[in-house]
Design goal:
27% strand, 8-stranded mixed β-sheet, globular
């Protein structure tokens, strides 16, 4: 039986990024996923995700700036030049400025100061009063009647075409010799000098090292000692007509921290995605540890609540009022779903060896901000598994005691 250098469980952002880095160094890699890429239960199986630079933590700011070189520029240390360019749009972002007394205001101010002073980024950010067109840059919003709102336009931001980018990364991994087993979940992991991974179909695959990278679903694969919570975020969509798509195709992301945010419409489907802010859900049966996927439990798992649908319509009415109605009736909100993410108490990732499990590692805790690191997080996962990750990152991402002291993280407020 073949023994691979690395067996990776989970073909999402962290798993595919790590697979690419190990394969680039000549390691034999085998990836197992319960579903085909992009998995229907992966948070990254989506039309789009925000790729932003704003962090008031220098570690993540540095990683975000590094990742942006692959999304938008021509870096090639970790991935081939331009590999992800067709899966990215540097569309910019408009953020509604929160009250100065709020934690979110402090986070944004500190983040921009850090990016300007340390990295020379975000120097072209502009502030506008009651003008969603941002001085005429986005005339699509001219009918919007913002009152009493200050907003900040940051052109140094974009979106990843999420599902497409995972397919692109899988193809690149295959070109490097990475083997995939899709449509088969993992039943058991037996640690040791050689780790045995047994799948739900009864097959066993051996690896010198094993990485569990299943996002919010990681707690269904391995006991994480309640270090993470599976948090469900509410998402809805609207279908645009050809005319509506032409009008809104070039808008930036619009982010209102108290209400929600929306994206440029998807090019292929003309579907526009809207997310509700300041609301989320947890699975009470597992004490918030495990997700409940509608895809897997269509009769049991809940969908988004009616108040979130109302919130999505409120976003439309406030920012794109011409899209609120269709043929004099409220427009249907389609594709409503709960997007499950793997949360940690302080939003730091967990990238470490699992205690008492020889040669078994975990990478999770994306906390809703991991997607942007698709180009480079695998490099750091590999370094941790090789034993040469910097002390700073090793300590920051270490296996740690649960410290859930509050339900809402300051930077999300």
């Amino acid at each position: 039986m073949t023994t691979y250098d690395v067996v990776i469980i989970g073909a999402g952002v962290f798993g595919l990024s790590a697979a690419a880095q190990f394969a680039r160094c000549g390691k034999s890699v085998f990836v197992i996923d319960k579903y085909s890429v992009p998995s229907p239960i992966s948070a990254a199986n989506d039309y789009n995700k925000i790729v932003r630079l704003e962090y008031n933590d220098e570690v993540y700011a540095r990683l975000a700036v590094e990742a942006m070189q692959y999304w938008h520029n021509d870096a090639d240390d970790f991935l081939p030049r331009g590999l992800l360019h067709e899966s990215y749009s540097h569309c910019g972002r408009i953020s509604i400025v929160p009250p100065e007394s709020s934690p979110r205001y402090k986070f944004e101010s500190q983040s921009l100061a850090l990016l300007r002073e340390k990295f020379g980024r975000c120097k072209e950010v502009q502030v506008f009063e009651n003008d969603l067109t941002c001085g005429g840059k986005f005339p699509q919003f001219c009918a919007n009647g913002l009152v009493g709102k200050k907003l900040r336009y940051n052109p140094d931001c974009g979106i990843g075409i999420a599902g497409k980018s995972l397919i692109k990364m899988k193809g690149y991994c295959e070109s490097l010799g990475v083997k995939f087993r899709e449509g088969d979940g993992v039943k058991n992991i037996t640690p040791g000098s050689i780790v045995h991974v047994t799948t739900c179909s009864g097959k066993t695959f051996n690896g010198r090292q094993v990485l569990v990278a299943c996002g919010a679903n990681s707690s269904n694969v391995i006991d994480l000692s309640r270090q993470t919570r599976a948090t469900g975020l509410y998402v809805g969509h609207i279908q645009l007509t050809d005319k509506e798509y032409e009008k809104y195709r070039d808008i930036p992301v619009v982010f209102d921290p108290t209400l929600g945010y929306f994206f440029p419409p998807d090019r292929a489907t003309k579907i526009l995605k809207i997310c509700a802010s300041a609301s989320s859900t947890y699975d009470t049966e597992s004490k918030s540890v495990k997700p409940r996927y509608k895809y897997e439990e269509p009769e049991m798992a809940k969908s988004i609540p009616i108040q979130s649908v109302v919130q999505i319509r409120t976003i439309l009415g406030q920012y794109m009022p011409d899209l609120l109605y269709k043929k004099k009736k409220l427009r249907d909100i389609i594709g409503c779903k709960i997007c499950w993410i793997s949360d940690t108490s302080n939003s730091d990732f967990i990238i470490d060896q699992i205690p008492h499990m020889q040669n078994v590692f975990i990478s999770c805790g994306d906390s809703g901000h991991g997607y942007k690191f698709l180009p480079n997080i695998g490099y750091y996962i590999k370094r941790r598994m090789d034993g040469n990750l910097s002390l700073l990152l090793k300590e920051k991402w270490q296996w740690r005691e649960s410290a859930w002291t509050k339900d809402v993280l300051d930077w999300r407020v």
